[in-house]
Amino acid sequence: MISYQSFEAWWWPYVFIAIAGWLATDIWRWLGVLIGNRLKQDSAALTWVRSVATALLAAVIAKLVLYPVGELQNVPVSVRLVAVAAGFAAFLISGKRIWVGIAVALGLLAGGQFLTGALIDAG
């Protein structure tokens, strides 16, 4: 049986992760495409799938904003919340252009991190 420790080559973990990741996700994607093509856009099943996907995305964003890991922990919660709110507002104002919302939120987040870091260094 092939396992993570089967080979000693430096590249083996990358191949193992790529294959395992592909097998775990691609099958479900193809099944979704095959089944999804047969559903009507306003069907109850597709509405439920969209609702679950939206809820999962909202949960991931909330976790990143409220309970961050890594460098994002150094950014104050107020800066993170303002960046998310401004990004969402920019998204709506721009006619629901995702890249505008992301650019605004990212710019405010980076600027806020830079300013809070500069204030901490000066103080």
UniProtKB/TrEMBL annotation:
It comes from the Bacteria. The keyword Lyase does not apply. Keywords: Membrane, Transmembrane, Transmembrane helix. The chain crosses the membrane at residues 12-36, 48-69, 75-93, 98-120. This is Branched-subunit amino acid transport protein AzlD. It comes from Hoeflea halophila. The lineage of its organism: Bacteria, Pseudomonadati, Pseudomonadota, Alphaproteobacteria, Hyphomicrobiales.
